[in-house]
Amino acid sequence: MNSNRLNPLLATSLALFLTAGLPLASMAADHAAPAEAPAADAHAAPAKKPASSASAAKAMGDQVREAVEAGGTANKRITLVVNGKEKKFITMPAKPPAAAAEAPAAAPAKAGEHATEHAPTAAPKHAAVAVNPKASRAYIRAKAAAMTGHESPAAVDAAAAHHDGEVHWAYEGANGPQAWGQLKPEFNACAIGKRQSPINIEESATLQGPAEPLQFNYMPSSGSVVNNGHTIQVDLYGDNAITVRGSTYKLLQFHFHTPSEEQINYRNFAMVAHLVHKNPEGQLAVVAVLLDPGTTNALINKVWTYMPLDTNDRVRMPVGIIDMNDLLPKDQRYYQFMGSLTTPPCTEGVLWMVLKQPTTVSKEQIKLFSQLFPRNARPVQPVNGRAVRDAQ
Ligand SMILES: [Zn+2]
Q1: Residues with active-site annotation
Q2: Do 40 and 183 share a structural domain?
C-alpha cells in the first residue's frame, strides 16, 4: 500500500524532470529533423549519424516518458543509459498521473508522421517498457520545434528568402555560389572578380622563402555569438589585433565553415575558422585556422555553449571568456595571398593568411555545427596566376 501511494509522486517528478530536460535536447531534436525538409535535401543527413549526448538525453527522456505514458503494466523496471556509462533503474508506477498521460494529446497531429526517425539513436534494448513510442517522440519533437520557432535549416532558408521580398544568397540551390554574381548588382565581384577566395593552395606553385612572423596580440575578451543564417559568428569586444606587413589589424569577429573553404594540395579540412581583422585604413586581413578531427577544442566548446538556436538570435558571452590564443596552433607559419570575402559581396583586396598547421576539433563539435549548417563553404576559385607565399 505504501509503495502504491508513493508511485504517483515518482511519476510526477519524472514528468517534471522530462519537461525541464527538453531545452537540452531541443537543438539536436530540432535540427536533426529530416522529415520536415524535402526528402532529397542535404539537411537530412545528420539524423543518421551516431547519437550525440543531447540525443542520448532525449533517448533517456523517451524511455521515461514512454514508461510513464504506458501506465497499464505495474512495476516495470527500465534502464537509463547515459553516454553508454551511467545506469539507473527506475520502477514505474502501476498507473500514471493524469497530467502525464494527457501530455501527448497536446502535440500537433502532423508530428506523429515522423515518429520513427530517431529510432537508431535510442537505446530500446535497455528499456523493459516500450509502449506508444510514436506519441511520446512526436510530443518531444513538436515541443522542441515550438521552442525554437522553426523546424529545419531548410525552413529557415525558405523563410529568410521570403520575409522581406529580397533575394538572399545561399550555399545550395538556385541562389547558390554559381548564382551569387547575378543576384544583385553589388554582388558583381562574385562573378567577374579575378582575385576571389577561397583558393586551392598548391604547395609546389607557392613562393617559398623567408617571411615575417605573424604577431598575434590576443587577450581574454568577451563577445556575443550570433547565428546569421550562414554561419555561427562571434563578434568580439576587446583589444585583439595582429600586426603584419607594417599594419595593425583589429580582430572584429570570427566564424566557421564546414568543410574548410581553403584547400591545401586539393585537400579540404573538416572545418575552418576565419578570424576577420580590419586596419585603420579599412583594409581587411583574414587569418584562417584549419580544423582537423581530433581532441575537443576548448574555445569552440565555449562558443557552442552559447550557440543561438535561431537565425539572427544573439547570445552574449561572459566577460573574459574568449581567449583567441586557445584557437591558434603552436606553429604559426602561414600561406599568404590576396583574395576576397568568401561570401557576397565577394569584395576583393583582402589579405589572407592561412595557418599551415591545423588545430583540432572533436567529431561531436563538428557534428553539432553541421546539424545547423550541413555545408557552408564556397567552392575554390581560380588562382589566376596570383602570388601565393609559403612563409617559412
Ligand atoms: Zn569565412
Answers
A1: 230
A2: no
Please give the distance, rounded to the nearest whole angstrom, from the Cα atom of residue 213 to the centre of ligand 1: 23
How big is the chain, counted in residues? 392
Please tell me whether residues 42 and 142 are part of one structural domain: yes
pTM of the model: 0.60
Quick one: 77 and 189 in the same domain? no
Is residue 50 situated within a structural domain?
yes
- Interior CA angle at 361 toward 359 and 362, to 5°? 145
Q: Are residues 98 and 233 in the same domain?
A: no
List CB-based neighbours of ion ligand 1 within 5 Å: 274
What distance in Å separates the CA atoms of residue 52 and residue 133, rounded to the nearest whole number? 20
205: containing domain: 167-391
Domains of the chain: total: 2
Query: Residues 172, 161: contact at Cβ < 8 Å?
Result: no
In sequence order, the 6+-apart residues with CB closer than 8 A to the CB of 375 are 42, 171, 172, 258, 259
20-51 per-position pLDDT tens digit: 333 333 333 333 333 333 333 323 333 333 33
Smallest CA-to-CA distance from 233 within 286, 279, 289, 275 is with 275
